[in-house]
Design a protein that fits this description.
Pnp Oxidase, Chain A; alpha+beta; about 200 residues; 2 domains
């Protein structure tokens, strides 16, 4: 393998960043970013631990589940999961997070980078409560950079095109895949059984 190990070598493959691409990174949320977040039912939360180990985790909810308090502050409710707490432990260690927001049918995405903290303040929890629950904690993100990505990646993937959607049956059920990965005597749930179990704690 021929590896690129310097920034100078990397830049020989690419031209300079376009001026517009540099200037469109904002230090705070404007009306467009706030609107995008309000429409988004899904984000990917990226974080790094003290040892540099990386994690990316999906977070979902009804559009608007992430609350915009002001131009610098977001609240992300933590919903029930697998209790590994990879992202939350990373935030405790480094106090940083990256977010990528998606809106179904929209090919642009919104990236937010900033400082992150885990809040159990009653005011934050109340703001993020929904019909199902009050969250145990909220990820409070202080925005340092907001960046609207162009549509190219989602256009290439045709992510929202129903004609390109893959039938769930092309893959084994999650239960079958887990049995192959973990082995042992774990129960091999059907996909329908697993989805029903998920629905109990959505």
């Amino acid at each position: 393998m021929t590896a690129i190990t310097t920034l100078e070598a990397l830049r020989t493959l690419y031209g300079p960043a376009r001026e517009r691409s540099v200037k469109k990174e904002q230090p705070r949320l404007d009306a467009h970013c706030s609107r995008f977040i309000g429409l988004s039912p899904l984000l990917v939360l990226s974080s790094a631990g003290a040892d540099g180990a990386l994690d990316a985790s999906p977070r979902g909810g009804e559009p608007g589940f992430v609350k915009v308090l002001d131009a610098q502050t977001l609240l992300i409710p933590d919903a029930p999961g697998n209790n590994r707490l990879d992202s939350l432990e990373n935030i405790v260690h480094t106090g940083q997070a990256g977010l990528l927001f998606l809106v179904p049918g929209v090919d642009e995405t919104l990236r937010i980078n900033g400082r992150a903290a885990l809040s159990t303040a009653q005011t934050d929890l109340a703001l993020c409560a929904d019909a199902r629950r009050v969250p145990k904690l909220v990820i409070r993100v202080t925005v340092q950079a907001a960046y609207l990505h162009c549509a190219k990646a989602l256009m290439r993937s045709a992510l929202w095109d129903p004609a390109r959607h893959v039938a769930r049956s092309v893959m084994p059920s999650m239960g079958e895949m887990l049995k192959d990965q973990i082995g042992g005597d774990i129960a091999c749930e059907t996909q329908a059984e697993m989805l029903e179990r998920y629905r109990q704690t959505l």
